[in-house]
Amino acid sequence: MIVTTTPTLEGMKITAYLNIVFGEVIIGTDIGRDFAAGFTNLFGGRSSEYEEALTDARQEAIKEMKKRAAAMGANAVVGVDIDYEALGQMMMVTASGTAVAVEFLEEE
Q1: Lesser CB count within 10 Å: N end or C end of the chain?
Q2: From CA 20, how far away is CA 94, in angstroms rounded?
Q3: Phi, psi of 27, rounded to the nearest 5 degrees
């Protein structure tokens, strides 16, 4: 499954636009992560615990989006966008794009 932020794929032809597709993941905070992040905030620097959690959530959102696109018969997702939103003590990560069918163009 090809996933790209661009609207087209070089060397390929989009043969069908299937639908908008999403993948969502909601992650909660926990006491241990909050405690470690509190020290980071106090002394400065980056919170590796939160960064790791966001990276994992982003990867899971993309994985879910690809799974839904494949179920539609897509072999690519174009125009992908990743959004983050705080929901109280939770964080929602959403991957969205357009599920498409593509074929390779023959070289001349």
Answers
A1: C
A2: 13
A3: -120, 145
